[in-house]
Amino acid sequence: xxxxxxxxxxxxxxxxxxxxxxxxxxxxxxxxxxxxxxxxxxxxxxxxxxxxxxxxxxxxxxxxxxxxxxxxxxxxxxxxxxxxxxxxxxxxxxxxxxxxxxxxxxxxxxxxxxxxxxxxxxxxxxxxxxxxxxxxxxxxxxxxxxxxxxxxxxxxxxxxxxxxx
Length: 165
Description:
This protein is of the alpha+beta class. It contains 4 helices and 4 strands. The protein has one domain (2-164). Strand 3 (115-121) and strand 4 (127-128) form a beta hairpin.
């Protein structure tokens, strides 16, 4: 499971960097590229935005503070994951996505002073990037794991452990 964690983490960072490079190379700030429309509604569009804050542009202008908090959080999550005795695949994927997404935005904050956001998706009224998608889906999977799977998984593990003795 350790290899899966690192594969997902690295793949998330690589895809994030590639998509941001493509967006920065092909979209001017203020330009709107409509990819999928339904009547007058943009279902999927691309628009360049330099976000110096966090989600929903909160903490605007606090780029380095956010970078430090992100770095600490990614280290803590990685250490927590590695210390888990029982690494369920869903937990592995979840933490890999969260850490990969966090690293992707961390790289932007440290080297650019802002996070490159470029994806607009109806009905949401905000712009985001692939790293944000990774963090959100990772968090959703984490919630699903702890609400619906962890208890059964740990019970099964304890039963298997007691049968071995």
